[in-house]
Design a protein that fits this description.
Blueprint (H helix, E strand, L loop, with lengths): L5 E4 L2 E4 L2 E3 L8 E2 L1 H7 L4 H7 L8 E4 L2 E5 H8 L4
Antiparallel strand pairs: 1-2, 2-3, 4-6, 5-6
Helix pairs in contact: 1-2
Length: 80
Amino acid sequence: MIFSDLLLTGGHFITGETMSKPTLEDKDFLTVIETATLFNLSRRKMFRLTEEKNLPFMAFYGSRKLIIKDEFIKYLNIPE
């Protein structure tokens, strides 16, 4: 496969007719539910946490709340 055969659109890699979603570990930005799943936390706790102000790992895309994975890892003090 050559580079021109690979097209990146909307977070999906498209090669010919096959399409694969990136894994949670590969993503830089996660939804609240994806974050809870990846870090084995309760959804309720994650949603409550995202209601706090001035969190260094929060990113907003319109009304959508996203978690910056690397910043969340620093927040949790988990070594990479």
